[in-house]
Amino acid sequence: MSKLSRKQKKMLRRIVVSAVLLVLLKLLPPIPIPAALSLLADHSINGEGGPYLSLWPLYLIPYAVIGWDVLWKAVRNIAHGQVFDENFLMALATVGAFFTGEYAEAVFVMLFYQVGELFQDYAVGRSRASIAALMDIRPDIANLEKEDGSTEEVDPEDVAVGDTVVVKPGERVPLDGVVLTGSSSLDTAALTGESVPRDVGPGEAVISGCVNLSGVLRFRVTRPCGESTVSKILDLVENASEKKSSSEAFITRFARYYTPCVVIAAAALFLLPTLALALVPAASLPGFLAGTDWSGWLHRALIFLVISCPCALVISVPLSFFGGIGGASKCGILVKGGNYLEALAKTDTVVFDKTGTLTRGVFTVTAIHPAEGFTEAEVLERAALAEHWSDHPISLSLKAAYGLPIDVARVRDVEEIAGHGVRAMVDGGEVCVGNARLMERQSVVWRDCHLPGTIIHVTVEGRYAGHIVIADLPKEDAKAAIADLKAAGVRRTVMLTGDVEAVAASVAKDLGVDDYRAQLLPADKVDYVESLLEKRDRTGALAFVGDGINDAPVLTRADIGIAMGALGSDAAIEAADIVLMDDKPSKIALAMRISRKTLRIVRQNIVFALGVKGLVLVLGAFGCATMWAAVFADVGVAFLAILNAMRCLRVNA
Q1: 620, exposed or middle or buried, with CB in 10 Å at 0-12, 13-18, 19+?
Q2: What is the mean pLDDT of the chain?
Q3: Is 186 strand, coil or helix?
Q4: What pLDDT, in 10s, does the model give residues 62-93?
Q5: Highest mean pLDDT range out of 30-39, 315-324, 363-372?
């Protein structure tokens, strides 16, 4: 069992003390008193040697130990106009039990009510645990580097943009920034759920909340504390409970009307038969009325009140959604509210952005086709040398594929031809690297390629040397992600991209996407999603999955906006309803499984709680239910519903 809080330990002590006192009083034998003190007698005890002393003053001791706070809350809420709640019901039922001579039952009902409250509090704490663990990712200090090179421990909120911060091995990165010196591995598990560390070096970005595993890092702060990645994530999670699902909203409205109705019903259950007994001769009354006096009907009404307490619903339904959000957060899936978790379960259409969502978003050399007289190595080397001074993504991919240190002395007279490519002198000879238009400009006969991707042609001293195919490759789990979604009941998957038709067709076919649209601008994506929303099944929902930066308009327009790989992206956290903290599209199907499991548990709790309460309420009205049955219908049902709700925390990834 997890460690109890101070408040929970205090309540546990009260429960134990009250239970021990109640047992001792139940074991206490009847105490005979003189007939002259009959006013102090308990007339419910029959036997020789009577009368016997009434123990109700003694029963007040365990009752006060366990129930004083419930009585106080009931009085305080009534003073503020909030009459009908569980505190009022428990206070009314137990005080009434004292008046009918059921002293032990009054203490027992309050005792088990507090046991249920303790368990509920513990269960809520458990459901918060995975989310509360995120609070540990907010560092308390930052090692601010001063002008003389020394460091000073300060609050991260006191660090300004542009300051230099030092992070030692084992410490958390306190703010977002760019590495100045040092290299290390960062543990991003608390943010992404991924166990594989991320290597960083000079010039690379670091985000707050990661743990520095090895070397010392010096970095320049790029965002103030309030706008850092960790602050935005924590704010997102802390506010998740404010956005209620329709099930939660229904339970809130239901409890608002349900509690006053059962109080009125309980009053009627007591008053109507009592008035009938007082006004009508017993002989003319039906047997079920004539056989019970006013105290019996009061007891039935009190049982009715205990049964009617809506704790099982009011606690277990929100707890189920909170548990689902907590379980998802452990997998690096941040859900902004129960309403989005509920909508995700109804999703039947998923629309994907291509670049950075289904594909890696990084150009990679996929093929080299040399012309006669050249080798693959020679073509790649000439292209990498000529592109050495460029930071264009295509140039970076060529240099990455080459993989060897570049001798800059071999390259001179570099000229970048806008919209065409690059011309440079390499080893004293002219090398041109670019698209087909550059080849035509150089009057070189070039060859087309059957492979999808961007084709980079290379010439050496006017001769065609061959071409290099560069493509944005699909992510490793993209194909499996599409298959998982279809297995989960998603009827249609669509890919939208600004890329050319041939590339889009190839990626869509490779991944198994049902449909695609190519060469779209951001506004075109919004228009297409609008058309899908108009044609959709009204019972289903449409989810759009994008990188959260240039797809913010579509993320906002869809029923559910899902941001992929949005670590550190303001646009994603702001625009999306669900944020996946890594680059794995397979997490979408996992999020859908979590949402559907949560909804199943919510429905189970609603049906179970209402069913048991309804049955015992009817039995109680006809005098067939005891106070023990009432306690089960209240605390027992709540206990079982909460146990069921806690299943939402367990996620089988």
Answers
A1: buried
A2: 80
A3: strand
A4: 999 998 998 898 889 888 877 767 777 778 77
A5: 363-372
Separation in Å, CA 60 to CA 32, 89, 98, 102, 586: 20, 19, 9, 12, 60
138 half-sphere exposure, CB direction, 13 A CA radius: 18
Asked whether the beta carbons of 165 and 142 are under 8 A apart, the reply is: yes
* Ordered DSSP codes for 22-68: HHHHHHSPP-B--GGGGGGB-TT--STT--BB--HHHHHHHHHHHHH
Apex 234 CA angle, 233 and 237, nearest 5: 90
CB-CB neighbours of 507 under 10 Å: 25
Choose the catalytic residue: 85, 187, 353, 484. Answer: 353
How far apart CA 294 and CA 350 sit, in angstroms, is 64
Q: Is the pLDDT of residue 313 over 60?
A: yes
pLDDT at 52: 65
Query: Measured between alpha carbons, how far is 46 from 41 in angstroms, rounded to an integer?
Result: 11
Strands 142-145 and 164-167: antiparallel
The two structure tokens encoding residue 70: 């419930």
Contact 318, 251 (CB under 8 A): yes
**Is 293 an active-site residue?**
no
Is the per-residue pLDDT at 37 higher than 60? no
**Separation CA 412–CA 234 (nearest Å):** 51
Domains belonging to the chain, first-starting first, are 6-131+244-320+601-649 (no CATH), 160-223 (2.70.150.10), 347-539 (3.40.1110.10)
What DSSP character marks residue 169? T
Taken in order 131, 133, 137, 138, is the CA torsion positive or negative? Answer: positive
Residues in the chain: 653
- Pick from 304-313, 581-590, 616-625: least confident: 304-313
**Most confident by average pLDDT, 483-492, 512-521, 623-632:** 483-492
CA distance 495 to 488: 18
Q: In this structure, are residues 393 and 356 in contact, taking their beta carbons and an 8 Å threshold? A: no
Of 240, 224, 72, 90, nearest to 158 (Cα)? 224
CA distance 387 to 456: 11
- pLDDT of the residue at 285: 56
Query: From the CB of residue 427, how many other CB atoms can be counted at a distance below 10 Å?
Result: 14
Q: Report d(CA 341, CA 322) in Å as an integer.
A: 10
pLDDT for 121-168, tens place per residue?
Answer: 776 666 555 554 544 566 778 899 988 888 888 888 888 999 999 998
> What is the average pLDDT across 245-268?
70
Contact 462, 430 (CB under 8 A): yes
Amino acid at 16: V
- Nearest Cα neighbor of 89 from 266, 256, 253, 314 is 266
Residue 422: half-sphere exposure toward Cβ, Cα within 13 Å: 23
**What single-letter DSSP state applies at residue 551?**
T
214: DSSP letter: S
pTM higher than the cut 0.85: no
Q: How far apart, in whole angstroms, are the C-alpha atoms of residue 70 and residue 298?
A: 21
Cα angle 12, 65, 97; round to 5 = 115
Percent above pLDDT 90 for the chain: 18
**DSSP string over 404-451:** S---GGGEEEEEEETTTEEEEEETTEEEEEE-HHHHHHTT------SS
